[in-house]
Design brief:
The protein is mainly α. Helix content is 62%, strand content 4%. The N terminus is likely disordered.
Length: 308
């Protein structure tokens, strides 16, 4: 069963390299940076769709950014807009721990813009390889609480709905299969609301496409098991998933290697070899800047070999 529809998600910046060898700039003015699902599940109780953490290179300005936020006195003196700008910059540089330390000072804020960013930062910190299990769980639940508070403070904030959906999926990993399945409905509702509020957010559209893909590929026997728990378990089709992946590409062409891969895999599942080859080839040719890009590239190459 697609137990974790959205787990280690949305955790790193989608970046593009500028003309300078050491410089990075974020792509898209409306994007809330992230990394998408890596693989779908194969079993109801143990399977899951997992996200791969991609780590972009540190910008040539990273050290200056760190020095600027190193002192809490300096941080407190910054205006709201400056703090948010600094937070987004540190996020794009993959400075997870520094970003968390910057934003956790605003954990009692009533500003949704601080809170959803703190939810994202807490979640990203929980995904670092050096975080022990107890701390990971604590950060996961903290992230959910921050996302929930952000939504309470501003239910018209698209990012708050997105990160609520993501973090809700994460906490489901600690609450059992029945809760995970039940949460899937809520996750979809909030992703749809996020897209309604910000139709130009390609990442939310992509996540919803993956939600559809995960349930579309669920084998019949796993559907039977799910039906024991819910009379009407979540379901979708490859056609529905395809529509979202294509829409994400329309909103922001070539924005994310994983979206290209999922287009190829969806066409493959629909037995459209010609279009599958087209999108898998595009995936193969996508510049691999991050660790996730390299993983996606390898998967595309492997699929192309199988297709001959």
């Amino acid at each position: 069963m697609a137990g974790r529809i959205i787990t280690r998600c949305v955790s790193r910046a989608v970046v593009e390299f500028g003309s300078g060898a050491n410089c990075i700039k974020s792509r898209g003015t409306n994007r809330n940076y992230w990394t998408a699902l890596r693989r779908t599940s194969t079993a109801l109780t143990s399977g899951r769709a997992a996200f791969l953490l991609g780590l972009p290179a540190l910008s040539c300005l990273g050290y200056a950014a760190y020095r600027k936020v190193q002192s809490s006195a300096v941080v407190c003196a910054l205006e709201r807009g400056e703090v948010l700008e600094q937070a987004d910059y540190l996020y794009s540089c993959a400075e997870t721990e520094k970003l968390y330390q910057l934003l956790v000072q605003y954990k009692d804020s009533n500003d949704a813009e601080f809170l959803w960013r703190l939810a994202r930062a807490s979640r990203d910190l929980s995904l670092l390889p050096n975080i022990e299990a107890g701390r990971k769980k604590q950060l996961t639940f903290e992230a959910f609480e921050y996302a929930k508070k952000a939504l309470q403070k501003d239910d018209l904030c698209s990012a708050a709905h997105k990160w609520y959906a993501v973090c809700l999926s994460d906490v489901g990993d600690y609450e059992g299969v029945k809760v995970k399945i039940g949460n899937s409905y809520i996750i979809r509702d909030h992703l749809e609301r996020a897209i309604e509020l910000n139709p130009k957010d390609a990442t939310s559209i992509h996540i919803l496409g993956y939600w559809c893909f995960a349930f579309a590929e669920l084998p019949w026997y796993q559907r039977k098991v799910a039906a024991v728990i819910f009379s009407s378990p979540p379901e979708s089709t490859y056609e529905e998933a395809l529509a979202f992946f294509l829409k994400a590409e329309e909103v922001d062409p070539n924005f994310y290697s994983k979206n290209l891969l999922m287009l190829g895999k969806t066409y493959l599942a629909m037995k459209d070899k010609e279009k599958a080859l087209l999108w898998l080839t595009k995936t193969k040719e996508y510049p691999a800047h991050t660790l996730e890009d390299k993983e996606v590239h390898k998967e595309a190459v492997d699929l192309l070999k199988k297709l001959g």
